Amino acid sequence: MMLIQILQHTPTWVFGMFLALLALGGRQLFPTQAGLRRLAIVALAMAGLSAYGLVSAFGGTPTAVAAWILAAAATLAMVLRRPLPQGVRFDVSEMRFTLPGTAVPLMLMMGIFFTKYVVGVLLAMHPELARQSGFALGMSVVYGAFAGVFLGRSLRLWKLAMGTSAPSLGAVLAK
Q: The pTM is what?
């Protein structure tokens, strides 16, 4: 009963956002090609959605923002140390990546979405949680970790592209 009430009180645009993220992440289940600009835009958009979740829930308090930044930086650093997935290639002449299919972006997108959704529901039911430092800190770390993973995955690809050749940044962004 409670789940039905929660869904009934969910704004319609939230379902649209869910479907858009599901489609975007679902496309990445299959091998694809992508340019640097598109990869950067997706990473920045997901980091932005993560930051929006933080600010909309906790008002951008200094402690929450600091926790988000530290979690994003730590996660980004960990991701940068990992090797690229098998099959990732960069074509210098086309300035495009060939990427194997993976469920990771879909899982990350759904993770951000459901974290934001659950936090929103919890705060609607228990507004006092927004003022509890433990809850705000924990959720800020989760949001920051999602941002760090997205940014780290994108930066790994940028590093591959910059190491493959030495194109000007303008040429890379123009593609």
A: 0.83
